[in-house]
Amino acid sequence: MTSKFINSEPxxxxxxxxxxxxxxxxxxxxxxxMQHCRIGTLKLFExxxxxxxxxxxxxxxxxxxxxxxxxxxxxALWLLERCAMLPPQxxxxxxxxxADGLPKAERVKLPTLEVIHDYLDTVRTQVFKYLETADxxxxxxxxxxxxxxxxxxxxxxxxxxxxxxxxxxxVGRELSxxxxxxxxRFTDKSASRESWQVGSLNAQPDFEMIQIPGGEFxxxxxxxxxxxxxxxxxxxxxxxxxxxxxxxTCGQYRVFMEAGGYQNPNWWSASGWKWLxxxxxxxxxxxxxVPDWDNHPVCGVSWYEAEAYARFAGKRLPTEAEWEKATxxxxxxxxxxxxxxxEATPDVHLSNHDNTIRQTTPVDAYPAGQSAYGLYDTLGNxxxxxxxVFNGYEGFASYPYPGYSKVYFDGQHYVLRGGSWATRPWxxxxxxxxxxxxxxxxxxxxxxxxxxxKE
Length: 455
Known about the structure:
It contains 13 helices and twelve strands.
């Protein structure tokens, strides 16, 4: 496996994405995106009481309401203070909502939703006023980074709230098509129900593996939207390998569970078995023991659980390079696709994302979203663990500050790819990299397996 640079000037390359578009059009597009993103973020808090708003449901995650205040704080810090050179906005909130301020356990005493809503609106009004004169030739990458920053916190809000409602929501429900028409908390007034039902008509998809022939491909991203850890584009050579066409389903994972997978140390690495003894679980976190979900991807598993299942199945987790090649590379046209299906931006007919359905869908529900190699469900539905430790690509440069990515290059975080049903469209692309500790189960994560051609 080898790699070499293609590009080395990410800030210059980012301008290619906006070439030929007038400054007024760029301002208007940013405004529309930010408005649409904010509507989706606030929608998550409909019918949420103050206790739910402030509750810390897991030591690793802040309360849902804290994330909302942090979104306002971060937008004000970067655009109003550091770009527009305005005095600090709401200085009384600085210590509460800064990421490295109060410990997570002390973030539970929050202003009300109405007060934070006013905070958001006040900051946003000033931000849009500044947008009218902002130097986008120098700043647009930052504005797009902030859009993705809100998108990422919006997803965290989603699963923090899900952790609070999951037990009562899952018990006693059939989890069938009626849930998408009868429960307004888990549906949307769109064509999404029709789009996922197409795949669910199949009893089981064909769980064949796809052979990815050896050769070079382009990994990474140098567009204006690319985060620092996605850069730079570099050419890599991979030997021939095989990868699952679909994410591992609940039905497949059930076999592992019923075979005593959680009780047999033979399937677990030493660190994985140690984690299991310290965290005695016997099923995924978001597990619904009903046949209707056998064709849904397993969701709420740690990296250790994914690794153990892969070994049980005689396979392994894919490297992130293997995952990205199978997802984005068009071997016929010899070019890197922004999305598995091409360059068209994500919509409800291509993948399950953006809280459109608010839970997983069958793994074969979106045939139009296949990659060039024929993989399904690579973007949206569930994040997918890879075998790789998170690190920067060669030539990495921190943006907009070292704490965003570089601080996590500590050898203790593993890369996830693909996005989930809660991932916003601005953070959904084949090159996007997520990262978490291997023992985390609360995120909306599953996996698919791979194996080398010689195995």
